[in-house]
Amino acid sequence: MTGPARRYFDEIEIGEEYESPGRTVTEADIVLFAGLSGDYNIIHTDAEFMKSSIFGERIAHGLLGLSIQAGLLTRAMQPYATIAFAGLRWKFKGPIKIGDTIRVRGKVLAKKETSKPDRGLVTLGRTVVNQRDEVVQEGETDLMVERRRTA
Amino acid sequence: MSGTASSPPRTYFEDVEVGSEHETPAMTVTQAHVSLYSGVTDDQAAGLGLAPELLALCLSTGLGWRIARPPLVVLAFMSIDWKIERPLRVGDTIRSRSRTALKRAMRDSGVVIEEHEIVDQHDAVLQHGRFTFLVAKRAVA
Fold first, then answer.
1. CA-to-CA distance for A88 and B59, rounded, in angstroms?
2. Crossing angle for the helix pair A27-37 and A62-74, nearest 10 degrees?
3. pTM for the whole thing?
4. What is the mean pLDDT of each run of 10 residues along chain B (141 residues)?
């Protein structure tokens, strides 16, 4: 089983950009995610209650959007030689409603060497937009990536 | 609007106490969780026996509804600042501990910041950070 070659810390350049395909978020996605996570908050599960809310209807879990963009972006880029997902700083800026089609744009914001010579930290900025190009989520993720050579 | 016969008690902004701490029940992360999660999100595990890191975060939010405090009336999840210290493995039994760090009133609602940590069966911290929520105030009669 050979996938696409993984890219090392040394090969990744600051400013590189990626754009994912779109994905339509469905009612089924939200129902499955509620069942999986156990987060049955009425904002995700009670259509009648939500008619009178500021959103007017059920909205997707913020973490569902976060998880879907993680999957989407991996389809848009050659994989990194990632050792670990180290952290994230993330803002939920607007609702994802049933039927919305989201995509994610990624950009390499920073690279940082660490105390260990075999790895470095790559900070990837991510912007999740809907079909109207409105930003629904955005933030940064830190990935620990293997270094190919040590000088 | 709480405490009537038809609506169970809920925690509004006014009820939130800074410094209060909660611990969720535990849950064993299984391959079924990983398969369902990866099927819905297309976010994949980094390797055999591992679970996607975000799965722990997703499961912890569900566990958060099972603490002794009545559910917080969350209007919106605003932001998250999160660090991952150790990999999540299939078979790990995780639970979450939280502490209310800050509350700030706004006109119609309020902002609540909670510190969370997800620990495994050895009490090792796998992931930790801060959640910021927009929480409803009690409706004024």
1. 17
2. 110
3. 0.94
4. 65 96 98 97 92 97 93 93 98 98 96 98 98 91 52
Ordered domains of chain A (ranges, CATH): 9-146 (3.10.129.10)
Fold of B13-136: Thiol Ester Dehydrase; Chain A (3.10.129)
The answer to whether residue B83 neighbours chain A at the CB level (below 8 Å) is yes
> In Å, how far is B85's CA from the nearest CA of chain A?
7
Distance from chain centroid for Cα B4: 26
Beta strand extents in chain A (DSSP E only): 17-19, 23-24, 82-92, 101-113, 119-129, 135-146
In whole angstroms, what separates CA B131 from the centre of its chain? Answer: 8
Q: Break chain B into its structural domains and give their ranges.
A: 13-136
Among all chains, which residue has been given the structure tokens 């089609």?
Answer: A101
Residue B71 contacts A where some CB pair is shorter than 8 Å: yes
Residue of A nearest to B57 (CA): A63
Q: Which of B1, B36, B55, B58 to mutate to test the interface with A (most CBs of A within 10 A)?
A: B58
